[in-house]
Amino acid sequence: RVLNKLLENEKSLDPNLRLAVLLNKGQAATRKAADLPDPRPMLVSAIASFDRILDSPGASRFWKNQAAVHKARCLEQLPDDGSALEVYYDVISQAPALGLSPEEVPEYTWFYRAGFSAIALLQKQEQWGAAIRLAERLAQTGGTRAIEAARLADKLRLEHFYWDDTE
Q: Which residues are CB-neighbours of 45 under 8 A, at least 6 positions away?
């Protein structure tokens, strides 16, 4: 109720405060969904909040990536793994530092969360090649979890005897 009350006058809110309220509203709906016998309506409501952030023209990559990861997690709970995977791929399709303005910093946190979540979904679907290629892509970013991604790619190759013909 408090979050809805704040959003009644959202045009007068500071843009970052508006995004934070929308994010909190979506997260609250996601948590509430876990306690319901039919979580679908609450998850759909959460996704709507996250979509509003994604549709906000002035939102930074940090806000958009965070909203996208939360949205994808809701989609996984529906379950709609295919759509969740698409949302994760949308996040990782942009390199963390690509196209940023001089005052923006590269956004690695949600980029890696999306990447590792996508890898987990691909593993669940036993798509070893796609999981390995994605882990290798994350490893090439040079960010804080690049080494972890490279190790995961090696581990998956060894566990599933997966070798590309190009090697």
A: 29
User: Span 28-37, mean pLDDT?
Assistant: 97
Q: Which of 50-59, 79-88, 101-110, 120-129 is predicted with the least confidence, judged by mean pLDDT?
A: 101-110
d(CA 130, CA 132): 5
Output the CA torsion 138→142→145→148 (10° steps).
70
Phi-psi region of 95 (alpha: psi -120 to 50; beta: other; left: phi over 0): beta
Residue 111 · residue 98 · CB < 8 Å: no
Helix axis angle, 128-139 to 109-124, nearest 10°: 160
pTM for this prediction: 0.90
Q: How far apart are CA 18 and CA 25, in angstroms?
A: 11
The answer to whether 113 and 84 have CB atoms below 8 angstroms apart is: no
- Check if the beta carbon of residue 78 is closer than 8 Å to that of residue 30: no
